Amino acid sequence: MNYPYSETVLERFKSPHHAGKIKDLDGVGEAGDPSCGDMTRIYIKVKDDIITDARFKVIGCAAAIASSDMACDLIIGKTIEEALKVTNEEVIKKLGGLPEEKEHCSVMAEEAIVRAVDDFRSRQGIYFDHLSYYSSVPCRECNCGMDSR
Q1: What would the pLDDT profile of 9-65 be if each residue is shown by its tens digit?
Q2: Which terminus of the chain, N or C, has fewer Cβ atoms within 10 Å?
Q3: Among 95, 99, 140, which residue's Cα sits nearest to residue 1?
Q4: Do the Cβ atoms of 57 and 19 come closer than 8 Å?
């Protein structure tokens, strides 16, 4: 099926700006959609609480590649807290829209960001996952109701 992708989606698919892996990464997050087999992995590099670089690898369609690439654009230069506020809706808007059937690709990118931040924090001994329902790391920092390990 041919989808009506925006010029931005097509450009990001054909020439992604942030494809690849970061050496000496500070965090990595992975998310997928079992219904279609797409998977994205986002790598982050952090210095003084600022994401200085973000890269991705994707198994998936044009929308998955474009969404992960745009998500990386949106978090580079932001603090960890600011990166956690990047939503799939923001990714879709910056891409000039996605067909409804492909919006799950932007959700994967959002989930991967949150998981990369969780991974970054866990490498520092900080377990603070109540910022998102995507996280699989139980919260040890507050009384948010999540089970502790």
Answers
A1: 999 999 999 999 999 999 999 998 777 789 999 999 999 999 999 999 999 999 999
A2: N
A3: 99
A4: yes
Cβ atoms of residues 148 and 138 within 8 Å: yes
pTM for the model: 0.83
* Spatial CA neighbour of 111 closest among 50, 47, 38: 38
* Maximum distance among all Cα pairs of the chain, rounded to whole angstroms: 48
Domains of the chain: 7-123 (3.90.1010.10)
The radius of gyration of the chain from alpha carbons, rounded to an integer in Å, stands at 15
Give the Cα separation of 12 and 17 in Å (integer). 7
User: Catalytic positions, please?
Assistant: 36, 105
Please list the helix, strand and coil fractions of the chain in percent, rounded to the nearest 5, in that order. Answer: 40, 20, 40
Q: What amino acid occupies position 16?
A: P
